[in-house]
């Protein structure tokens, strides 16, 4: 890290702290040449490879805007969308890769969106997974119903002792 005062090519870390969201680290540094102190903020970069091959930084705002369309007219708040976008970002960061394609982000969106609102999930999945026929919708709805029945059955079973 170059010193911003004297441009010396090295600096010493005095203190490190993680941010509240845990996605960045603030480091207090000191230049061994001039003694000047300065702060840096370090984040791990996460890049998205679009279908066209263009790379751009991951954006929670883009996740929110894409999902917002599917949630139109549904009882989903902006706070819900912000939490969903944070969950998606955490999930893709946990994969440990620094570059992923839009398809992987779409897959990461489907799970949290399904838990948030099943109708919005169907809308998003119909576009994302390119539903072509009514059978595609019927299959997705059947899967949702089967999951609901499994959950209901597990809730009505007596607890084992």
Strands, helices and their partners?
Elements: E1 12-18, E2 24-30, E3 37-43, E4 47-49, E5 55-57, H1 60-70, H2 78-94, E6 99-101, H3 102-116, H4 118-128, H5 134-156
Parallel strand pairs: 4-6
Antiparallel strand pairs: 1-2, 2-3, 4-5
Helix pairs in contact: 1-2, 1-4, 2-3, 3-4
Descriptive key words:
161 residues; alpha+beta; three-stranded antiparallel beta sheet; three-stranded mixed beta sheet; 6 strands; 19% strand
Structure report:
The protein is of the alpha+beta class and 161 residues long. The protein has five helices and six strands; from the N terminus they run E-E-E-E-E-H-H-E-H-H-H. A hairpin with a 6-residue loop joins strand 2 (24-30) and strand 3. Helix 1 (60-70) packs across helix 2 (78-94) and helix 1 (60-70) crosses helix 4 (118-128).
At a glance:
This protein is an alpha+beta fold and 161 residues long.
Structure annotation, total helices? 5
Helix content: 40-55%
What sequence of helices (H) and strands (E) makes up the elements? EEEEEHHEHHH
DSSP strand tally: 6
Provide the β-strand percentage band.
Answer: 15-25%
Overall spatial form:
elongated
Query: What is the spatial order of strands in the main beta sheet?
Result: 1-2-3
Mean pLDDT: 89
Q: Residue ranges: pLDDT <50 for 5 or more in a row?
A: none
Q: In terms of structural class, how would the helical and strand content be classed?
A: alpha+beta
Query: Mind telling me the C-alpha Rg?
Result: 23 Å
The end-to-end distance, rounded to whole angstroms, is 60 Å
Described by strand count, sense and barrel closure, the largest sheet is: 3 strands, antiparallel
């Amino acid at each position: 890290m170059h010193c911003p005062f004297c441009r010396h090519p090295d600096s010493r870390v005095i203190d490190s702290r993680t941010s509240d969201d845990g996605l960045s680290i603030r480091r207090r540094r000191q230049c061994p040449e001039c003694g000047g102190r300065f702060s840096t903020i370090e984040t791990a970069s996460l890049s998205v490879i679009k279908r066209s091959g263009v790379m751009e930084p991951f954006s929670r705002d883009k996740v929110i805007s894409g999902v917002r369309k599917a949630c139109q007219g549904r009882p989903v708040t902006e706070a819900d969308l912000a939490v969903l976008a944070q969950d998606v970002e955490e999930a893709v960061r946990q994969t440990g890769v620094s570059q992923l394609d839009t398809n992987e982000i779409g897959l990461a969106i489907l799970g949290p969106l399904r838990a948030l609102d099943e109708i919005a999930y169907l809308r998003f999945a119909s576009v994302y997974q390119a539903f072509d026929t009514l059978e595609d919708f019927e299959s997705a709805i059947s899967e949702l119903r089967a999951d609901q029945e499994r959950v209901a059955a597990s809730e009505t079973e007596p607890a084992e002792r």
